[in-house]
Amino acid sequence: MVYFVSHSMRRVIITTFGTSLFLQVAYFGSVLFLVWRAKCNRRAVERPGQRRCDSDHS
User: Fold this and answer.
1) Which of 24, 57, 56 is nearest to 40 (CA)?
2) Is 0.85 topped by the overall pTM?
3) Domain boundaries, the chain
4) From CA 39, how far away is CA 27, in angstroms rounded?
């Protein structure tokens, strides 16, 4: 799509690289978030009287 709009292979390569880098960072962040939530949930099972996570108000 970028090539049809700009007719520039350089812009296509830069856009593809930037998009793939963004997706990798987003994926890594989501995995870290899921690991953090699993740790909080495991801690809640071990100590049921305490809050699970700092941001969890339920």
Assistant:
1) 56
2) no
3) 24-48
4) 18
